[in-house]
Write a structure and sequence with these properties.
By secondary structure, this protein is of the alpha/beta class. The chain has an 8-stranded parallel β-sheet with strand order 1-10-7-6-5-4-3-2. The radius of gyration is 19 Å and the shape is globular.
C-alpha cells in the first residue's frame, strides 16, 4: 500500500476508522475466556466477515484482530509460542479484505496492526521489566510487519511508560508508521492517571502518525480527551474511537447503549474541533460506521444527540443499577 494515513486525511479532510472487533466476535460465537487472536487461525472467515462489514459500511481503515497478540496475553491461553503466527495471520486477513475492497470500489484502504497493552505493570509497580516489555512488543510488531500491515496501532493503553516502550520496540524492528491511543476511563484520565494534555505533551516529540483516545468509560470522557489532545497537538492527526456508549443490562444480556446516531453526532462535533481520524470501539457495529460515514460526508443531517456524563456515578454503579433483579417468589 503506497498511500499513508496522512495522505488519506489530506485528501478528504478526515479518515473513518472501523468499529469493534471483540464484541463482534462474541456475537459470532467466540467463547468468553478464549483467545480472540487464535480465531485468526481457526476461524479466519469470521474475522474476514467483520472486516468486510466495516469496509462495506465505508471505513477507510481497519484494525487487525491482534489486540491481545503479545506473549503476555497469549500465555493466559497457552499460545505464547504462536505469537508470530497469530499476528501474521491477523495482518494477512486484514490485507485480503482491504485489497478486495479496493478492487471492488476503487478506494484505498489502510490496514492497521493492533497492539494492545501487555496486561502487566512495569516495575516498580509490577513485576514486568522494561526489557521484557519491549521484547514482547518487538515480537508482535515484527510479525505484523511481516504480515503486511500499513501501520502499527498501539491502542487502549493506560501507562505512558508502556506506550513509550511499545513505540521504541516497534521502531527497533520495522519502519512502519505508528499511531497511539490511550483509554480514558477514570474521571477523565487513564487508569494510570494520564490526562489528554499529558498524552499530547509526552507523545508529541515521538513524531507519531496519529495520537488520540479509544474505548473508555463513556463517550463524553473520550470526547473531552481528544478535544484536549487536538488543542495541544494541532499538527498531529488526532484519533477518536469511543465505545458505543456503556454496557447495560437488557434482559439477561449485556449490551452497549450507544446508538449509531450518538456516535455520528460525536463524530461531527470532534471533527469540527480538529479531530481527523474517527471511528468507534467496543459494542459498535457496521451500522455505527455507516452512520458516521454518512454524517461526515454530509449525506445525512447531524443527529441532535448528546451523551451527558454523570460524574457522581461510576461505570460499575451503572451496571449494578441497570442489571435486572431477580424476582423473589413468595411462599
Amino acid at each position: 500500500m503506497t498511500v499513508t494515513l496522512n495522505d488519506l486525511v489530506k485528501s478528504k479532510g478526515y479518515l473513518v476508522a472501523d468499529g469493534a472487533m471483540g464484541t463482534q466476535l462474541f456475537a459470532a460465537g467466540l467463547s468468553a475466556g478464549w483467545s480472540p487472536e487464535e480465531w485468526n487461525l481457526s476461524h479466519p472467515d469470521e474475522i474476514r466477515a467483520v472486516h468486510r462489514g466495516y469496509l462495506r459500511a465505508g471505513a477507510d481503515l481497519i484494525v487487525t484482530n491482534s489486540f491481545g497478540g503479545n506473549c503476555f496475553r497469549q500465555s493466559l491461553h497457552g499460545f505464547e509460542r504462536q505469537v508470530r503466527e497469530l499476528n501474521i495471520a491477523a495482518a494477512q486477513i486484514g490485507q485480503v479484505e482491504a485489497d478486495a475492497e479496493t478492487q471492488r470500489s476503487g478506494r484505498p484502504v489502510l490496514v492497521a496492526g493492533s497492539m494492545g497493552p501487555t496486561g502487566e505493570l512495569l516495575a516498580p509497580l509490577g513485576d514486568m521489566s522494561i526489557e521484557a516489555c519491549e521484547a514482547a512488543f518487538a515480537e508482535q510488531a515484527a510479525a505484523l510487519d511481516a504480515g503486511g500491515v500499513d501501520l502499527l496501532w498501539i491502542e487502549t493503553m493506560s501507562a505512558l511508560d508502556e506506550v513509550e516502550a511499545a513505540v521504541r520496540a516497534a521502531r527497533r524492528v520495522c519502519d512502519l508508521p505508528v499511531a497511539v491511543t490511550m483509554s480514558f476511563d477514570t474521571t477523565g484520565c487513564t487508569m494510570m492517571g494520564v490526562s489528554g494534555n499529558e498524552l499530547a505533551d509526552r507523545l508529541g516529540p515521538l513524531e507519531l502518525a496519529a495520537i488520540g483516545a479509544n474505548c473508555g468509560n463513556n463517550v463524553p470522557d473520550t470526547e473531552a480527551a481528544v478535544l484536549a489532545i487536538a488543542e495541544v497537538a494541532p499538527g498531529t492527526p488526532v484519533i477518536s474511537k469511543p465505545n458505543a456508549g456503556v454496557p447495560v443490562w437488557h434482559g439477561h444480556s449485556l449490551v452497549y447503549d450507544g446508538t449509531p446516531d450518538l456516535l455520528a453526532a460525536h463524530s461531527h462535533r470532534v471533527h469540527a474541533a480538529g479531530v481527523s481520524v474517527i471511528g468507534s470501539c467496543c459494542g459498535s457495529t457496521p451500522e455505527h460506521t455507516a452512520k458516521i460515514v454518512a454524517v461526515l460526508a454530509g449525506e445525512e443531517p447531524t443527529p441532535d444527540v448528546t451523551a451527558a456524563p454523570n460524574p457522581r456515578e461510576t461505570l460499575d454503579e451503572r451496571l449494578v443499577r441497570r442489571r435486572p433483579r431477580r424476582r423473589r417468589h413468595r411462599h
